[in-house]
Amino acid sequence: MTPELIHSLATWTWLERTAVGQVAFVLVAPRAHSADAVRGLAAALGLREPSCRLPYVGERVTVHGSSRARLHPDGWAHAIGLTVGARWSRYVVEGGPVAVLVGLDPLTPCAQPDAVNEYVITRTRGNRLRMGTASMRRVW
User: Per its UniProt entry, which superkingdom is the organism in (predicted)?
Assistant: First the structure.
């Protein structure tokens, strides 16, 4: 995948308490309509449809300080940069699970938390989200 494709993506990160405990979330969605490209991203990450059991997709995340992380798809020369908070960073470094979500429909990069939440709910119901769980990749 190209740097241009990576720059066409928008990302969001957050921590959330779920039925299975605390989870660090990453959402990646296109800024403009490019469902084929994001399907390729979802495949390169090993993600599945919401109706399937969430797969563990391996060590996909690297953390770089308290405000930056990267998501690493298979076969991509470039990683996807993520802006993260200090709590998110610390939680992942300490071994917390990461839910990786890829939306197939556009979402504006300036979407606020309520809009992101609505996007996740509606795209999950409409089978327009791909999901999996990941962990941090140790970089030596």
Answer: Bacteria
Q: How far apart are CA 27 and CA 14, in angstroms?
A: 9
Angstrom distance (rounded) from CA 125 to CA 103: 12
Contact 30, 123 (CB under 8 A): no
Residue found under tokens 């071994």: 95
Cross-strand bridge partners of residue 83: 68
Joined together, the tokens standing for residue 13 give 């990160």
CB 38 within 8 A of CB 5: no
Report the alpha-carbon distance of residue 18 to residue 133 in Å, rounded. Answer: 13
**∠ at Cα 28 (23, 29), nearest 5°?**
140
70: tokens are 């990267």
The single-letter DSSP state of residue 137 is: P
Widest Cα–Cα separation across the chain? 41
Q: Mark residue 42 as left, alpha or beta (left: phi above 0; alpha: psi -120 to 50; beta: remaining).
A: alpha
* pLDDT tens figures, 71-123: 999 988 889 999 999 999 999 999 999 999 999 999 999 999 999 999 999 99
